[in-house]
Amino acid sequence: MLTFMASDSEEEVCDERTSLMSAESPTPRSCQEGRPGPEDGESAAPWRGQDGEEDHEEDPDHYVCSGVPGRPPGLEEELTLKYGAKHVIMLFVPVTLCMIVVVATIKSVRFYTEKNGQLIYTPFTEDTPSVGQRLLNSVLNTLIMISVIVVMTIFLVLLYKYRCYKFIHGWLIMSSLMLLFLFSYIYLGEVLKTYNVAMDYPTLFLTVWNFGAVGMVCIHWKGPLVLQQAYLIMISALMALVFIKYLPEWSAWVILGAISVYAAMVWTVGMAKLDPSSQGALQLPYDPEMEEDSYDSFGEPSYPEVCEPPLPGYPGEELEEEEERGVKLGLGDFIFYSVLVGKAAATGSGDWNTTLACFVAILIGLCLTLLLLAVFKKALPALPISITFGLVFYFSTDNLVRPFMDTLAFHQLYI
Amino acid sequence: LAGTITENKDGPVQKYLLMFGVLVSVFIQEVFRFGYYKILKKASEGLKNISADETALSMRLLAYVSGLGFGIMSGVFSFVNTLSDSLGPGTVGIHGDSPQFFLVSAFMTLVIIMLHLFWGIVFFDGCEKKKWYALLLVLLTHLLVSTLTFINPHYGISLVSAYIIMVLMGIWAFFAAGGSCRSLKLCLLCQDKDFLLFSQRSR
């Protein structure tokens, strides 16, 4: 039961278009730029937001804003570059917080490192006698996972295209409900078990209810910015923990690798297809009815934000998009970064060096991606570079650096 | 190398391999420090554009930051596993080793972090002013501190000399970063106009 729901929600939550906005107050602007939302838009309207809603009304504005007449192009470029470094740092904080939560949980709560079954998306077991068989099973698991992601993505795009916005709304609400109530209930239960703290049902009910209800309000309606960001970090961490628990070891690594390759491929294809001549053809029709529905919910002008993208498989998915004011990073990216670091913490024989090396690698990758973003001025996938660095650092640190550092620490030698 | 070290149970051979590994690591660190200087030098124009503040990023600031970064990573990698083990159950020195293992590791880590900081400042200053003897001295003192740790657990010599080297490097770095006896005096007596407590000094 849990397995099924877990796998179910992993799709849903990744479609959730919630945003994390920074506390910085923007200078007043005439056009309202990308409010929360679309992480994905490579630059094209159609892909902005599977979550229909606010995207469309922004799009014309977005295009208008980015080419605001009267603003000298040189100044714009300088402004973009200038905002680059500050927003890199602003992105570091939520990413680091999410990773800290995941690593702290992995290191203390035994539940998330125990093997207790697998998701239905990874049916092949890794308890095989031979290495070759295990490798084969993990590759097959990855293929199944990626194809599920592709199918779900196509499904969501079709829903968006045929304007089944209510369905998408409902799906988002269901997934956030499940994350905020069920998964946090389980998490709380496991934490209490670990520390052997007794809690009676009324208190538990009150706690979970308040947590979940405030979360729903913050995410889907209005709420203080910091609280909204905190909730998004928490649900990313919960999702990452589910992945860490239910993905078998080798499959997890292969899946991480495959997803970053996939994101890079999709982005390349998307870039190739999105040349100016085909721009018009790819635009989905502007939908006025969605406009007034969503505008009030996210009325603030754009801040640096983090929005939830659907799982990859979709041109422009975990994409970052730089606007005049800030950078957006998808929640799917948060989740996969945390999965990588969490797996490093869980499986690296309790070694902190490996965990730290992966953490630093991911941050470096994020920096590089943002640098490329400033250079290319187009949305970019955030996963490939960071995950590649993370994987490289994980395997090299675990196999080469760890034995060496252990021996050094044992003999109290310092380099 | 790592594999050979861990598999090889032969005492002296393991020790020699370890020494070789330590020396190579020190060389690699200094080479990367130099490489980092080169990259920062090339990128300092671009960094000036990116930084939102009006104050330009000086090479001295970058030297401090790079030294601090090296120090933190080095310290963390050396010490965090020991720290996490210290939280668990156990008795220190039950097999005849020194009971001050944790304390000495902690102090040694501290001195290494500070040393990297000062080495960074001195190194970058040497590169800027083309004083190549500074680079050589940094490399030599680094090698010295690392090889001195080979005589652990005779902590007296290694720890104390590491601290002495740290103080000396600190003084060198202070002068390399532009300090002087006069500015130090002004600072300590709260007469320096740029210093925080300037307005609080007693009249």
Automatic annotation (TrEMBL), chain A:
GO molecular function, one term: aspartic endopeptidase activity, intramembrane cleaving
Function: Probable catalytic subunit of the gamma-secretase complex, an endoprotease complex that catalyzes the intramembrane cleavage of integral membrane proteins such as Notch receptors and APP (amyloid-beta precursor protein). Requires the other members of the gamma-secretase complex to have a protease activity. May play a role in intracellular signaling and gene expression or in linking chromatin to the nuclear membrane. May function in the cytoplasmic partitioning of proteins.
Pfam short name (any one): Presenilin
Keywords per UniProt: Endoplasmic reticulum, Golgi apparatus, Hydrolase, Membrane, Notch signaling pathway, Protease, Transmembrane, Transmembrane helix
Protein name per its UniProtKB record: Presenilin-2
Organism: Equus asinus
Annotated Polar residues bias: 19-30
GO terms of biological process kind: amyloid-beta formation; calcium ion homeostasis; intracellular signal transduction; membrane protein ectodomain proteolysis; Notch signaling pathway; protein processing
Designated gene of the protein: PSEN2
Family: Belongs to the peptidase A22A family.
Entry keyword annotation includes DNA damage: no
TrEMBL record, chain B:
BP term (GO), one: protein processing
Stored InterPro entries: Aph-1
Compartments in which it is found: Membrane
Chain segments annotated as transmembrane: 16-40, 61-80, 100-120, 132-151, 157-177
Sorted UniProt keywords: Membrane, Notch signaling pathway, Transmembrane, Transmembrane helix
Superkingdom, taxonomy of origin: Eukaryota
Protein function: Potential subunit of the gamma-secretase complex, an endoprotease complex that catalyzes the intramembrane cleavage of integral proteins such as Notch receptors.
Family note: Belongs to the APH-1 family.
UniProt subunit comment: Component of the gamma-secretase complex.
Protein name: Gamma-secretase subunit APH-1
Organism from which the protein derives: Equus caballus
